[in-house]
Amino acid sequence: MSNTPSLNALGQAIQPARTQIAADTQSLADYAQQAIHHVEAHAWCHIEGGSDQNLTLQHNRAAFDALRLLPRHLADLRHAHTRSTLLGHALESPILLAPVAYHRLVHPEGELATMRAAMALQTGMVVSTLSSHTLEEIAAAGQQATQDMGHGGGPRWFQLYFQPQREHTLALLRRAEAAGYTAIVWTVDASIKRSGFPLPYGVEAANLRGMPAPQHTSHLAQGPILFGTPLALQAPSWDDLTWLRAQTRLPLLVKGVLSPATARQAVAGGADALIVSNHGGRVLDGAVSPLEVLPAIADAVNVPLLLDSGVRWGSDVFKALALGAQAVLVGRPQLHALATAGMLGVAHMLHLLRAELELCMAQMGCATLADIGPDCLWQSPASRPPHKL
Ligand code: FNR
Fold first, then answer.
1. What backbone phi and psi angles, to 5 degrees, belong to 246?
2. Measured from the CA of 312, which atom of ligand 1 is nearest?
């Protein structure tokens, strides 16, 4: 083993997480800028990167930036709030933490710190199959935090990746149910993706101990590349949705939907809600942005829609809701905040995003989430007939 200290992506010594929030940290963009100092270089590239040319990664942001808001003033804000219900859960705000693997890559307390912060801010968290603490440890941290805070916390959901053997998938599902998770999020867009990020010492897929390691694409010069390999042969298909639906009574969300046809089929197969997502631009480069397809999916199905990929500002949350989402999820920002300032950072990051949403709603004249709709967006006359003003 080498004694060379690990460096961050700037070639400098990695800084430990801060114990206080710096005064200049005022947005998720600030957390993204600061986090690079606190994360080992390979882990940073793994977290930040998209696939191939990063076309989809960049397009996710461009799609939000291209939309224009059409403010209306003098609304009565005396009873304004951001509450809603989703799949029977009360949400304080329409913002959740997306499932993100291996939080211990950026902070020793990993998902335990993220969960505590989420519960303190009454925010839902979706725990990844690939978490670096066990799903039971994370659930216990969430329960404890909720008790300590003396309020309802937020929903705790479990994200499921199918395992090569069904008995292992079922074991994960049963463990999630037993640990008190209240919904299952089945991610369908990443069963086949390039991978190969070597986990550093001390970070593991804690839930998968004793299960065979997941398959990756082959790096060999000869033999099958993908087709004909176990990765392709064992990839889940629509039959697995039927099977999964029959296994659990928990609400089931399908994550990674981008086409209206997939949305219809997922709902027909028993999905209670969909997460419109391109996995933060990490899978198929060139894929459409979730924001672009959201209206078509909202037309195609009649279940709650959530959206992620590129959400960074309160106005992004607003825009997603205006186009038909009930809630959004953030991925990378939770790792940026965790790396920069641990649990405190994640809590602060969530506070900032919620504060921006409230400010945006107020400036847009929307007292509740129900007031947010397509008429809040300016549609350029060149692209569509204008809304009645
Ligand atoms: C992810 N994502 C992800 N999704 C999932 O269903 N299970 C997982 O284990 C992971 N792991 C993961 C790791 C890292 C480092 C990233 C950045 C993302 C995808 C995640 O849930 C979400 O779809 C995107 O992160 C949303 O895009 P933004 O907010 O990062 O732009």
1. -75, -15
2. 29
Q: Are 221 and 195 in contact (CB under 8 A)?
A: no
Q: Could you give all domains of the chain from N- to C-terminal order, each with its CATH number?
A: 28-208+226-378 (3.20.20.70)
The string of pLDDT tens digits covering residues 259-284 is 999 999 999 999 999 999 999 999 99
Round to whole Å and give the CA distance between 269 and 239. Answer: 9
What pTM was computed for the model?
0.96
In this prediction, the residues of the chain whose per-residue pLDDT falls under 70 are 1-4, 195, 214-221, 380-389
Closest C-alpha residue for ligand 1 atom 11? 100
Q: How far is the CA of 79 from the centre of ligand 1 (A)?
A: 35
Burial profile 99-123: b = 16 or more Cβ within 10 angstroms, e = fewer: bbbbbbbbbebbbbbbbbbbbbbbb
Give the catalytic positions in this structure: 279
- Nearest residue to 349 via CA among 114, 74, 52, 37: 114
pLDDT at 212: 85
Q: What pLDDT score does 207 carry?
A: 98
C-alpha–C-alpha distance, residues 326 and 78, integer Å: 23
- CB contact set of 365 (below 8 Å; sequence gap of 6+): 71, 72, 73, 74, 75, 371
Backbone angles phi, psi at 379, to 5 degrees: -100, 120
The protein residue whose alpha carbon is closest to atom 23 in ligand 1 is 279
Distance of CA 368 to the CA centre of its chain: 23
